[in-house]
Amino acid sequence: MKKYTIIVIITIGIILGFLTGIYVYRINKISNEQKMYTAEKVEDECTALSGLEYEEIASLVTTNSDEEKTSPNCTIILKVYHESCKHLIETRQSIEEADVNMTEEELKQRFSNWEVQRFTPTEIVLYKEVDEFCDEHYLLKEEDGYITIYKLDENENPTFFNTTEISTEYLAEEDLEQIRNGIKVYTDKELNKTLEDFE
Known about the structure:
The chain is an alpha+beta fold. It has helices at 2-47, 51-66, 104-110, 173-181, 188-198, and strands at residues 75-82, 87-94, 115-119, 123-130, 137-143, 146-152, 158-167, 183-186.
C-alpha cells in the first residue's frame, strides 16, 4: 500500500512539473512576441519618413539647440562713423524686450542697415557709416565766471548749450587761459571727462 501511494505522488509531481514548464514556456513566448512587435512598430514609424525628411528634421533639431540667442541682460553697442567729421560715436543701451531671444539671423533682418560686428547672448556690436556731421562737437568757454558749453555746427558756428556750475575763480592760470580762448572737445564722453578735470 505504501509503495502504491509513493508512485501516485511521484506521478502527480511529474505531471504538475511538466504542466508548469509548458505554462512558463508559453508566457515567455508571448512576452517575447510582444516585444518584437513593439520594436518593429517603432522602427516602421521612424523609417516611414524618407531619408531626406529624416535628415532635415535632425538638422533642424541640431540647429535649434546650438544657435545662440539674445538674453534679457544683453547690451547693444551702436557704433556710428560720421564721414563728414571723421568721428566714431559709440553708444550703449540695454536690449529692448522685443529683441530678446533673437538669433543672429533674425537680428540682421531687424537691423538691416547695420553691420553686426559681434553677436553673443550678452553683447551685440552694430556698426554703420553715415555721410553726416556728428552732433557731438563742443566748445567750452568762460562766461560770467563759469564754464559754459556751446555746440558747434559743421562750420564751427557756436550755439549756446548749457552753463555749468563750475566756477573759473579757482582754476589754475593755465587752465583759465585755455578756457578764455575756448577748448574744443568731441563726443559726449570726452566732454564729461574734460568737465570732470576742471571740477
